[in-house]
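From the methods appendix. Each design record in this collection lists the tokenized structure first, followed by the designed amino acid sequence. Records were kept in a plain field format so they could be parsed without special tools. The example shown here is representative of the layout used throughout.

RECORD:
FOLD TOKENS (408 positions):
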């Protein structure tokens, strides 16, 4: 079989990418094309890119109806900055592509001018041929000369195919926030998950925390369903936004938000075993046991030892009395992330931008009312949290009223 390998950031996935895929398949030089979103880029800074799973899922939405096209998460398995040669080797070693198959590296003509800068170009060209996209506006003479130089220097096999002239850039799209030219499934995905926010909260993370966030979410890709992972990513971003607004550590908020459901889809027996190592006495119900289980999972699988992060994971379902700021942030972000479609969240979201305690009171009260209507019990720790917050609010109100009357 002839495989085409088409890699890139795809941030976001746009009409130009689709044009390359369709053109490569139409050329009949390949039987199937693997679209490979970058995990951790080896050359460019990943800080300018959306987190890897967001870009993977955008790509899957965009190519869903294209026959003989598949999106591969192979670079997520590498868990390190990856070069094309590493990606090709991984595909071969995993058996995704057989050594008897022919591999074409699908690329734009601009690659020909920078190919010497790639890692181990001579070894890469022992494994792949180049299948280069030519657009009507390309510099024919310059491309021909560049191709001839690579053929002469490396003994490369280079073939060309035609694509439509699509003048569009992912960088410009991210900068302008003009998503009108993107495939409609990608537009809907961006809107639902609030990608490319103008405040760019993840820019405020330390380099170490951003890298950890990127690595953790690629690991979670293989442990959580698409819906659960996207929820976790959204919770992480919103947690950072709240931490910045209210003066808490955005790095703690990011990791706690991302990992809050890390044990959610483990077998229930494993969740019970993990939870029993974290709490004593009666274990929580089936729908809540993932929270204490998540503490052990974060310790064991992600080497998290920060007690603030672990407590935020532990109490994100119920809350408790004397919650820390990070605990409140993750509790609220879990309920309010942009893809959540609970009954009207408008007021809680409004309050969460103004005052954490008021938002907690509103949110806990809404949960209590919902459970009461269903004839279910309000969790004891949730009740403790709500009562304490109401008492503190009343004490503050009385103190303010007293000071106001005294000054008069």
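DESIGN:
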């Amino acid at each position: 079989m002839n495989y085409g390998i088409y890699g890139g950031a795809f941030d976001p996935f746009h009409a130009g990418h689709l044009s390359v895929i369709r053109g490569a398949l139409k050329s009949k030089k390949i039987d199937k094309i693997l679209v490979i979103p970058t995990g951790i880029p080896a050359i460019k800074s990943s800080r300018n890119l959306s987190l890897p799973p967001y870009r993977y899922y955008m790509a899957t939405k965009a190519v869903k109806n294209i026959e003989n096209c598949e999106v591969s998460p192979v670079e997520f398995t590498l868990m390190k900055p990856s070069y094309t040669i590493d990606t090709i080797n991984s595909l071969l070693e995993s058996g995704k592509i057989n050594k008897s198959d022919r591999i074409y590296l699908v690329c734009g003509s601009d690659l020909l001018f920078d190919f010497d800068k790639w890692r181990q170009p001579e070894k890469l060209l022992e494994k792949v041929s180049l299948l280069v996209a030519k657009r009507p506006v390309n510099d024919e003479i310059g491309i021909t000369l560049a191709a001839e130089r690579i053929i002469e220097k490396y003994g490369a096999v280079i073939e060309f195919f035609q694509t439509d002239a699509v003048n569009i850039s992912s960088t410009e799209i991210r900068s302008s926030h003009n998503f009108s030219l993107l495939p409609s499934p990608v537009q809907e995905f961006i809107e639902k998950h609030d990608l490319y926010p103008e405040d760019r909260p993840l820019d405020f993370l330390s380099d170490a925390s951003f890298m950890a966030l990127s690595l953790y979410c690629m690991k979670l890709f293989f442990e959580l369903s698409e819906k659960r992972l996207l929820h976790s990513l959204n919770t992480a971003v919103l947690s950072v936004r709240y931490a910045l607004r209210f003066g808490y550590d955005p790095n703690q908020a990011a990791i706690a938000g991302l990992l809050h459901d890390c044990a959610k889809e483990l077998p229930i027996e494993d969740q019970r075993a993990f939870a029993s190592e974290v709490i004593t006495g009666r274990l929580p119900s089936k729908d809540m046991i993932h929270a204490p289980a998540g503490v052990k999972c974060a310790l064991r699988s992600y080497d998290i030892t920060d007690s603030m992060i672990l407590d935020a994971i532990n109490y994100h379902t119920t809350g408790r009395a004397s919650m820390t700021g990070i605990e409140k942030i993750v509790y609220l972000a879990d309920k309010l992330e942009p893809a959540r479609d609970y009954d009207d969240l408008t007021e809680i979201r409004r309050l969460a931008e103004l005052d954490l305690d008021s938002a907690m009171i509103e949110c806990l009260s809404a949960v209590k009312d919902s459970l009461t209507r269903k004839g279910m019990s309000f969790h004891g720790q949730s009740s403790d949290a709500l009562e304490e917050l109401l008492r503190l609010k009343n004490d503050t109100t009385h103190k303010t009223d007293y000071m106001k009357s005294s000054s008069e």
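APPENDIX NOTE: Confidence is low (pLDDT under 50) at residues 398-408.
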